[in-house]
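Why this split exists: single-chain examples teach little about how molecules sit against one another. For that reason, every record in the complexes split bundles all components of an assembly together and asks for one structure covering all of them. Below is a record exactly as it appears in the raw files.
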Amino acid sequence: MSNASVHTGRHFLQIPGPTNVPDRVLRAMDMPTIDHRGPEFAQLGLEVIEGSKKVFKTKNPVIIYPSSGTGAWEAAIVNTLSPGDKVLMVETGHFATLWRAMADKLKLDVEFVPGDWRHGASPEDIEARLSKDKAHSFKAVMVVHNETSTGVTSRIHEIRKAIDAAKHPALLMVDTISSLGSIDYEHDKWGVDVTVSCSQKGLMLPPGLGFNAVSDKALEASKKNASLRSYWDWHEIIAANKGGSWSYTPATNMLYGLKEAIAMLMEEGLDNVFARHKRYSAATRAAVETWGLENLCLDPREYSPILTAVVMPEGHDADQFRKVTLDNFDMSLGAGLSKIKGKVFRIGHLGHFNDLMLMGTLAGVEMALDLAKVPHRAGGVMSAMSVLTGRDAKASQAKTAVA
Amino acid sequence: MSNASVHTGRHFLQIPGPTNVPDRVLRAMDMPTIDHRGPEFAQLGLEVIEGSKKVFKTKNPVIIYPSSGTGAWEAAIVNTLSPGDKVLMVETGHFATLWRAMADKLKLDVEFVPGDWRHGASPEDIEARLSKDKAHSFKAVMVVHNETSTGVTSRIHEIRKAIDAAKHPALLMVDTISSLGSIDYEHDKWGVDVTVSCSQKGLMLPPGLGFNAVSDKALEASKKNASLRSYWDWHEIIAANKGGSWSYTPATNMLYGLKEAIAMLMEEGLDNVFARHKRYSAATRAAVETWGLENLCLDPREYSPILTAVVMPEGHDADQFRKVTLDNFDMSLGAGLSKIKGKVFRIGHLGHFNDLMLMGTLAGVEMALDLAKVPHRAGGVMSAMSVLTGRDAKASQAKTAVA
Amino acid sequence: MSNASVHTGRHFLQIPGPTNVPDRVLRAMDMPTIDHRGPEFAQLGLEVIEGSKKVFKTKNPVIIYPSSGTGAWEAAIVNTLSPGDKVLMVETGHFATLWRAMADKLKLDVEFVPGDWRHGASPEDIEARLSKDKAHSFKAVMVVHNETSTGVTSRIHEIRKAIDAAKHPALLMVDTISSLGSIDYEHDKWGVDVTVSCSQKGLMLPPGLGFNAVSDKALEASKKNASLRSYWDWHEIIAANKGGSWSYTPATNMLYGLKEAIAMLMEEGLDNVFARHKRYSAATRAAVETWGLENLCLDPREYSPILTAVVMPEGHDADQFRKVTLDNFDMSLGAGLSKIKGKVFRIGHLGHFNDLMLMGTLAGVEMALDLAKVPHRAGGVMSAMSVLTGRDAKASQAKTAVA
Amino acid sequence: MSNASVHTGRHFLQIPGPTNVPDRVLRAMDMPTIDHRGPEFAQLGLEVIEGSKKVFKTKNPVIIYPSSGTGAWEAAIVNTLSPGDKVLMVETGHFATLWRAMADKLKLDVEFVPGDWRHGASPEDIEARLSKDKAHSFKAVMVVHNETSTGVTSRIHEIRKAIDAAKHPALLMVDTISSLGSIDYEHDKWGVDVTVSCSQKGLMLPPGLGFNAVSDKALEASKKNASLRSYWDWHEIIAANKGGSWSYTPATNMLYGLKEAIAMLMEEGLDNVFARHKRYSAATRAAVETWGLENLCLDPREYSPILTAVVMPEGHDADQFRKVTLDNFDMSLGAGLSKIKGKVFRIGHLGHFNDLMLMGTLAGVEMALDLAKVPHRAGGVMSAMSVLTGRDAKASQAKTAVA
């Protein structure tokens, strides 16, 4: 381990977001702010709005807020739902729980399907609950696509089918905060009504932008919705967006970065981006398996391509382990949150990332397991390399399973 | 005029915000995003929170949102007021009108004191209205410190006295969006309950941060306030801020910039900053007077140090004139907004600015007046130079009057 | 004047180079250094070499050194001339004198045509001297295109004709350090053998690159030249350049900037660039004339488009005046050098520059003349504005004269 | 391997220089160029000159050129030596050979001690040769401290002792191009007369600056030396440096970066910097040994802390292997140069670097060995990790040996 208190080289930011912002994006943001009511801005505005639609895979409006992702959660709620409205939410983990807490604060009537934080939202269960709701009292089904706290990816496409099978009119609202731009997602094709996202994960930007992609049905619902709102109201922004401007001052320099980040995603091709993340996760899981540690996610169909949550062996504290990685290897790993605090650490492998950065990351974890005296088998990095070089047949199967 | 379609040199961004972001601030923002839950971030968080207090001149909490200034308006309202609450607002111009429109949307019961957009809020009038309100039905008085649409600065300190004279318990909520960090302002000493601001004016940052500085009285009110809110709720943020973090992902790179911008304001000294802006406005007014054009602001006690709104002569369109300045001199001036659209243009002279940038600005206006064939007397730039060199005694008086 | 010791806004860098580096160029340079032997670099190398040829207007090699312009002077000499070789140089000012001093150090036999530092090199005089040299003992004629110390531009095209008229085989070597990319110049068409230049003037880059554009005749001379040299030797670099690399490590990040700067010049169009600089100089001279001050350059055919050297009235020290502009207006003006030290100040008006930056500059000079109590007539800025708006017929003539 | 033609994440620049430039340094360079004759520059100039002395560990002048390291080689020669002067150079590898070629071009009379490119300069051999030179015909001994082409570090301190033992007055001139700021070096204490270096290796800057640190004896020699020179002449620069300026335009923005880079080295502490590089090289050698590949450097006392040159097994082309690493893992490795072209690849592990970047690097090499079907044993990365975690006793010995 390095004993120097001064860190050298690049920090390994391996939390599952904020992710590493590419130099191209940071440099694009590092330009003079312009008049947000002038013609140059209007062109930028139109470009980022159209570009965002490509990332969400929608032809409908995408509303971009100066906000965190939390703000985009709130926007989704206050535009479509009113206090007292009943909604179905699923306890996939910490962030689903936080979104539910927000729904409570905003006086929604939440039915919160309990979960073990090791599985995604069950399409079967959702179908069953909706089928029973003959009165169509549920106004919305709200799920997290990729639960950032657990490394479990829910199958949104199947949840859509479940709602359809139940012939239920509830809106489908999906949090893609840690999946957009990293995991396959189709707002229009999958029939999502409101997709919530933000800038600092797969979009490779600093935090500061929130997004709502909306369906016609959601827009229609919002027009009828009497819920008090101003900042988050979709309609004034959509109206202003037609000319490339916003109804209040947008976060200009963040939009410079968004334009560049979208260009990078399109240059690589979204399908390549998605495949790339699956490789990282397959390699990471191979390492975890070799170490003899447990993946928090239990269902191979739900393995997250963008992070892997690792269960600490009994008697070892994950936060203490994370301190070892930070102090010795200048690497930030994700913490276990709320009820899994200290029990889990999370390896982020998303965004502006590549094979060698992943290997640096996994080597850092393996060395830290050693230094922290966490029981494990050596050689996780060897297994990961086998996946990356394509020599590991089992990993290839794992890779397929992830697909 | 230059006929080249390609602009060279630096754009003159002379709208009254967003302002010119200093290179130091842009470069500070142009650094890798860090873990918002790690120790390095915590130190940054504490620094910017403490630094912000110095700028607002308060010992109380300052809440920093990833949002525009509009969001900070909403935060002020939803934390302290509930639908149906009666508030006193004053029509100082476009932005006061927008804030009022937000209050309407959020179902406050607004008494909107009409104004001519050429004067600030009248302390006498406020005192009179509050004195009549024996039942203390007004829960808040909400005024804009510097009305960015008109170049009129209301006398907040006197409004405080007016409220006190009326012995009225209403909260005083002040929008300092275009004044903070440019015009003398004291949250604590002046007894303001909620001060609203944002990043892209006197703070010399890009847009993307909103601020609420709050009094104990406002905090108390917020605890009793049942208004629905989540994103804007002060208390979770204040609680997290004690450790230098936020209750949701903050706009990290904007905070890098905020730290640097506050450092720059402190290096210069706030009193020097305020005096500097008064010089700019005195020089600008001297130019306007020589041109024979009219200042929208009618009361010398209310001349804005940070922008000057100029009334176009009858028969000339201000937006056409602004197009001439943009096309010929690559300078953006502020437009007349809503009911003064086309009738007024606004010269921003704030933020990261200096005498020669001001002279370039005023020369651009004078040359454009010429090219656009707007009737005027030549020599405005000469008058401005006289003020800047201290040779103009009248201007010195003007300067004093501004003080 | 501003009394604050802390400067705000952008510094006015009005020396005749280094000039203001555009943000686009600085940001392009602010990227990770790459392998100078890899394929990505090779593409960059080829691009900047081809792009440089467009700026010099040559189809022949342009050699780019990691060096100052002084290094490019030395390169021109050591590649083509040997100790004892006779050369004809012309005393146009400080830089011509420095180049001569270098020639002396390198043991050339210099005939230095004396000058008054107020005129360019005389084609007639050169023709007369060469005509007398029947033995063709002069191996080279070495002149400075734009003498940065005086604001006098020699007529290179006419000097070429003079050499031809004298039927003299001497090489023509020209310093375009402050003219390249700002003043019309054609390496091939004008028959120049070695053109010397650097990065920090019209090319809008920081200092750090030197250039030699070479004719076939110069290349031929260099092959026969036994002068000791290694770093500056053209041939190894030209050989390596064919594949886009260098024979030693090039200044990679400067080349990133060069690529961007050339792109900017091409977007604007060189003819527009040249015309733009003439406008600046016409406006500046109009101001100087109104002030009643004297232009150091006496011949209207030789007025420099990129700087104006102003003679201080007797009894006033130019460096003291420059201190006043720096202390009060955060503007750097060029000093009088060596024998005109204290007697002249120089206003640079070149590079990444525009009308309003020029007006800020001239207003700064006029205000400083006032503060420094230098006798002058007010109104120079008014005259400059008349030129810029096209209202000043005389200035239009001046402009024509400059052409 | 990744098949995407678009690379994501950060490139692994593992050539032995240019090295990864820290963001702090790039950002420091990304600031407006200032007047190189003004007071702000003078302060910068003095700071970087004083700071450079600390890095070279000298109290004598350090001359900084706008040049590559090759220029600094030339400066060392032309300041102290004249055509015909006899010098003793040692063939440690490609760069020693290039320096010798330069000496030839500059007409020195070089005795070039032959070498096998696998050993450093032999102090014993130098002593023997100098002892025989009773006439003191050798004017200088010129050696490369760290031969970048081979990964062999010569023992300069012992060479100094050898010269002293021979009681020979020859100047000692040392190339520290790839060692300065990474490998222990003491200009004064070790009695070096001219130390040559550059910016793009241990100093963590882009290429573009050359350095000469000089002893009193070297300065004395230069005064007596009649060799023709101008650009490289020490004395005018040293004279100008006293006031913080240069005798010609310095590379201002590179000096911004130099100031920041020196600050970073001092914050870490040079001894920590040196120890850090030894860890990297010990870990790298452990990997190479496990792979069953051969280190080009044969003498453990001469293992380079900053790069490791690896011999390719017979029948395998190192450049083809390097193409595999570049195409599959976006990593640049150093090539074998001239007579070892294709036979060796070089792993750079220096500069702004850390343990996890090293592990990414070594994992990339191991995976590429696999993909390129180069015979090797798996597990090099495991061995490297053992060294980094301190579990490998043998490596600890190796580490000691390196010291």
